[in-house]
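Problem 12. The chain below contains 215 residues. Write out its predicted structure in token notation.
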Amino acid sequence: MREILIIGKGARFTRPELKADPQTYPVITPTAAVGILSAIYWKPEFWWRIRAITIMSPIKVVPITYNHIDRSSDKSIDIRDRDARMQRRCTELRDVCYRISAEIVALDGNPNKHLGVFRDRIDRGKFFKQPVMGTCEHFATVQWDDGREPAVLINQDFGYMPWYFQPQLNLKSKYTAVSPTQKGELVGIDPHFNQFRAIAKNSVITVPDYEYETF
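Solution.
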């Protein structure tokens, strides 16, 4: 599939181990890239596989202080009440741009029909829901790669990063986003979350093939 560019004025790809004061990964994660592609086009008959992520812009991490509303589910809370608010800090990214190399893995063995629909939706700017850069505050612009070069070459080990999330088997669906067995039968796998070591070489993070087992 032709490579695409994902561009945003801001982003926050929250690290799962730091939820109280959200901290972002320094670059987009494969799971976040899958979420953006799925916002444009997705069906249970296929799943997205991210092959490579190219960091096109310098990494700019900025600290943010914001007011968090305690017990936000309680409708009786007055947000003007200082006792109902607490200040929290997080980190976010600014002026981000990534080149994504991805492919469709179709469970029926025919990805071309899905690629055609995806290309048409990109060309027409259509999506199922607004693509976002990790959180709903940061919209993502998705376009075809225009051949630009990375602004800087980054060679860095970013440590472990979310690789893929295996959803639970949906027994009501004819297809499920899981791998077929050697016999061609669809198998269900318990939900689990895997990670991989993200290393950028000349601004390119190569994403390994998925493995259908937990570490």
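Discussion. Confidence is low (pLDDT under 50) at residues 168-189. Students who got a different answer should revisit the alignment rule from Section 12.3.
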